[in-house]
Amino acid sequence: MKKRVALIYGGDSSEVEVSILSGKHVAANIDREKYEVYEVLLRGTRWSLCSSDSESSPIAEIDKSDFSCCLEGEKIKFDIAFIMIHGTPGENGLLQAYFEMIKIPFTTCSSFVSAMTFNKYACKTFLRDTGVKMAREVYLQKTDKYSVKDIVDKLNLPLFVKPSDGGSSFGISKVKKAEDLENSICEAFKEGDTIIIEEFIKGREMTQGVFCSKDKIILLPVTEIISKNEFFDYEAKYLGASDEVCPAHIPYEITEKINEETQKIYHHFGCKGLVRVDYILREEDVYFLEINTVPGMTKMSLVPQQVRTAGINMMDFFTILIEEACS
Hints:
Number of helices: 10
Low-confidence stretches: none
CATH class of the largest domain: Alpha Beta
CATH architecture of the largest domain: 2-Layer Sandwich
Order of helices and strands: EHEEEEEEHHHEEHEEHEEEEHEHEEHH
Shape: globular
């Protein structure tokens, strides 16, 4: 019998529209000869089975007690959850913990790893003793008092203000003048209760997808991101305001250094499934930026580009991710 795959997208963050696009692209490329695919939209407390044509017309509601649904009088239970939710609850460990409790396999990292990597400050703290180079930062909670002068004195200008637990560059700003810092902090806090302020590392932005298959870590080609804006913001990511070069035009030795860092980070966290690791390359030094445990999977997203460059068929790629999760 074919495995029943629940392809889950949507979510409750600013990234919902990107998540839907990612989910639809995955749905169009899963091998239907091997799998029955059911698209599931999560929005708040409403979890709905949707048609492939439109997520706005629910076919059935999901029973959260066992993650099943009733379709044409038949109870449908799923063999695996293919999680394509960026942000909460699909990237921060909440959905993973649910599936762990009801014992349904899923395609992403565990709930612990997802939660740890989703929070930028926690992620960096977990990597402190590994030798991975990272920008210096200041961590703030919404109720903390802070001094603009002390932050600028520690990190210098320009600097970046980022929500600790967000994606797709929502709430991120590059601050060039001290008088703009307070407003940027306020904007970042609109995305969550904690933020980090990081020093600016001038260099080239690199990113690399990595996944595991049959206990072997597989590295995808490195991509260089050349943003036409101040940084790789939402417009650059999704509206074409960037050039993405894959494979990146960098020396072999630098590629090997990035490969080594990606493998180290993937192994240190105990990641599963597909993740994407972002870096800044300053001359020959590789600085870690962040991990994405549910990277974008739209037609123009970075990982699909890397998969194609590696000569892997997208349908075969999704089959690998599904089978690895079920093993």
